[in-house]
Amino acid sequence: MVEIASDGPQWWEVVGALAPFAALLAAVLATVTAFATLRQRTTADRASLEQKRRADDRAEWGAARSGLSTQRPTPGLLTPRG
Prior knowledge:
single chain; 82 residues; mainly alpha
């Protein structure tokens, strides 16, 4: 009969036991990153819309002061008179 003395689990057994934890950690990090990206995009979109709204307001006021119409004809829909 042969007896093998063991000092404890080998390093690959420890790594194998931690694999599910590593997968869970990766999923959590991916979720946090996705939500951070979503929040950043939402903030950027809101800022862009606000900037566009302000530019549109300035354009309307400028056209009203000069007597110009903000409505422009669509190219290609006008027929030549003749």
